[in-house]
């Protein structure tokens, strides 16, 4: 981190995250939020305290002649000492609380935890979390032969050991920054749209536990043994579009406030459904039927999938199933000219539903084994040149499967493991060629072609790509263009026509921002990206800021 954000973070750090120490004895895991075994234990070196001056006894006057002596009034005894839970020292409550001269705690002369980190520091707490939640039983201050040391060293050590270090959080990842005297580390417990919730020690409270919800960009993230993949899915496109056959496109998107927006070619954007009711982290699905009517499917904030089309000038949405909150639905028109819907449930079960002649959705037909599909990558539906409907999905272990819904079995496609957080792109060009563009777990962008019912092995396109963002594919004037996010977070547009160079639209640092492609009348293909609403024409490589003055996307 750098600049103003780093300075704010540095001023906020009230305690350091040292790493020296010796081995001690661990404790069993508890089930409370703060289950760190040395919570509020040990003593820190304290700033010398001024001694408490005992009050002098009041002088006793001499007795009058013939009178008995006055009784001696003893001063009240000092109050019993009180234990300060922060410093671990007993102190006289009549004076100030002890103040730690250094944020280092010792127990029976040892300042180290069971893994060689300083007690009640951020490094010690994160080590405890890695053991107790991530299952890294062997993690310590010299894990895999490297000295991890202060928190500022952890990202460098992780890179040297081959771990992924990036700007994409995941549950169980180590949040790390170099800000402050010796840096800071924390444990990622939750992720929201643009935010991350962390657990930490020795930050807001000296030697104490705390939680914070902060912007994702406040930290970098060390993926040592993530508990779950990042919910920042590759299916959260800024806009989805379908060409209308006349040179324009219908577009749909969900804005940051959860409002579903739909636009006809050349028309203003309009709201669909209840304002703010939809999940802002997954994209809707869009398809045109044989009469040119748009069909839209979107996921609500509670995981319900609603589908609808225009009726008497209004788009009517009805519930049609459920979905994981991290995977977009898929929608296509079958050979029978009726919509087909595919969703992945929160448990990882892939199901398809068909709309009957009576206008009802069928019961879900399960595809493959239950709970065997990635919940962070959306299923894909599309038609080949013969009109067959193809379903493509990514398994929970990275295998890619395809199936023709008319008459076919589930096929496992050959090739490297796919990214679990990137959605493939299935397209059929004007020449009848059906292609599948997909990012692998290693960040390679490959393209498969369909020959009859057989899919080729993927051919890798040049470059290194983000496994957290999905590619977008569009065709203009017979030429296919692929827009994708590279490993630096920049959007790159590549033409499949031999000899045409790739164009880097704009540099960026967010690996999770997937681009979208929109065809406009006049043989233009527009690249859209969320956040800045970046728009560019690949043919001219000219960047335009077409963000409207009021909310809404105008293609």
TrEMBL record:
Record keywords, A-Z: Signal
Transmembrane segments: none
Pfam families: CHAP
Record flagged with keyword Signal: yes
Region (Disordered): 49-92
Signal as UniProt keyword: yes
Signal peptide positions on this chain: 1-32
Compositionally biased region (Pro residues): 57-83
Domain Peptidase C51: 97-223
Gene3D superfamilies hit by this protein: endopeptidase domain like (from Nostoc punctiforme)
Protein name from the UniProt record: CHAP domain-containing protein
Organism: Nocardioides cavernae
């Amino acid at each position: 981190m750098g600049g103003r954000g780093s300075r704010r973070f540095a001023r906020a750090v009230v305690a350091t995250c040292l790493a020296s120490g010796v081995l001690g004895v661990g404790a069993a895991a508890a089930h409370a939020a703060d289950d760190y075994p040395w919570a509020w234990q040990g003593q820190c070196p304290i700033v010398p305290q001024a001694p408490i001056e005992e009050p002098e006894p009041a002088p006793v006057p001499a007795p009058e002649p013939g009178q008995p002596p006055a009784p001696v009034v003893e001063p009240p005894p000092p109050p019993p000492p009180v234990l300060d839970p922060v410093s671990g020292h007993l102190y006289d409550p009549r004076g100030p609380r002890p103040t730690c001269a250094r944020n280092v705690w010792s127990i029976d002369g040892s300042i180290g935890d069971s893994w060689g980190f300083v007690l009640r520091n951020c490094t010690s707490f994160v080590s405890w979390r890695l053991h107790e939640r991530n299952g890294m039983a062997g993690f310590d201050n010299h894990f895999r032969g490297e000295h991890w040391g202060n928190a500022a060293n952890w990202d460098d050590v992780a890179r040297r050991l081959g771990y992924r270090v990036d700007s994409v959080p995941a549950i169980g990842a180590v949040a790390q920054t170099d800000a402050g005297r010796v840096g800071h580390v924390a444990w990622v417990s939750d992720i929201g749209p643009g935010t991350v919730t962390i657990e930490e020690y020795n930050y807001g409270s000296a030697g104490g536990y705390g939680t914070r919800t902060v912007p994702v960009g406040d930290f970098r993230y060390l993926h040592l043994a993530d508990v779950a993949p990042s919910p920042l899915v590759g299916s959260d496109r800024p806009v989805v579009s379908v060409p209308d056959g006349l040179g324009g496109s219908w577009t749909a998107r969900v804005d940051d406030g959860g409002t579903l927006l739909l636009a006809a070619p050349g028309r203003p954007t309009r709201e669909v459904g209840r304002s703010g009711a939809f999940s802002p982290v997954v994209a809707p699905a869009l398809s045109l039927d044989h009469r040119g009517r748009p069909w839209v499917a979107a996921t609500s904030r509670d995981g319900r999938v609603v589908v609808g089309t225009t009726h008497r000038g209004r788009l009517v949405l009805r519930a049609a199933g459920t979905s994981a909150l991290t995977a977009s639905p898929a929608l296509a028109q079958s050979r029978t000219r009726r919509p087909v819907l595919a969703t992945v449930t929160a448990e990882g079960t892939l199901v398809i539903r068909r709309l009957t002649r009576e206008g009802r959705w069928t019961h879900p037909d399960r595809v493959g084994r239950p709970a065997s599909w990635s919940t962070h990558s959306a299923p894909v539906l599309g038609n080949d040149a013969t009109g067959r409907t193809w379903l493509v999905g990514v398994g929970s272990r990275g295998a890619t499967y395809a199936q023709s819904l008319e008459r076919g079995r589930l096929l496992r496609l050959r090739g490297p493991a796919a990214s679990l957080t990137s959605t493939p792109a299935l397209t059929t060009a004007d020449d009848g060629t059906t292609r599948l563009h997909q990012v692998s777990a290693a960040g390679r962008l490959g393209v498969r072609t369909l020959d009859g019912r057989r899919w080729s092995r993927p051919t890798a396109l040049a470059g290194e790509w983000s496994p957290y963002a999905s590619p977008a594919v569009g065709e203009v004037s017979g030429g296919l263009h692929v827009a994708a996010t590279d490993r630096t977070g920049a959007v790159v547009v590549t033409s499949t026509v031999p000899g045409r160079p790739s164009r880097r639209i704009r540099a960026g640092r967010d690996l999770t921002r997937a681009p979208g492609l929109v065809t406009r009348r006049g043989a233009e293909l527009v690249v859209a990206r969320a956040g800045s609403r970046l728009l560019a024409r690949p043919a001219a490589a000219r960047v335009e800021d077409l963000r409207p003055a009021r909310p809404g996307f105008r293609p």
